[in-house]
Amino acid sequence: METFAQPLPVYTALAAVGIVLFGAFLRVTRLTAGWAPYRTWLVMLPVVFAALWLGVWGWAALVTVVSVYGFKEFARASGLYRERLFVLVVYAAIVAMNLAAVFGRFGLFMVAPVWAVGLLTLVPIVRNRTEGMLQGFALSVVGVVYFAWFLAHLTYLAIWQDGLGLVIYVVLATQLNDVLAFLTGKLFGRHRWTALSPNKTIEGSLGALALSIAFAFLNWQLAFPRFPWWGVLAAGLIVGVGGQIGDLTLANFKRNIGIKDFGDLLPGHGGVLDRLNSLTLVAPVFLHFARFFFDGFP
Question: Which of 33, 98, 128, 205 lies deepest, with the highest CB count within 10 Å?
Answer without folding.
Answer: 98
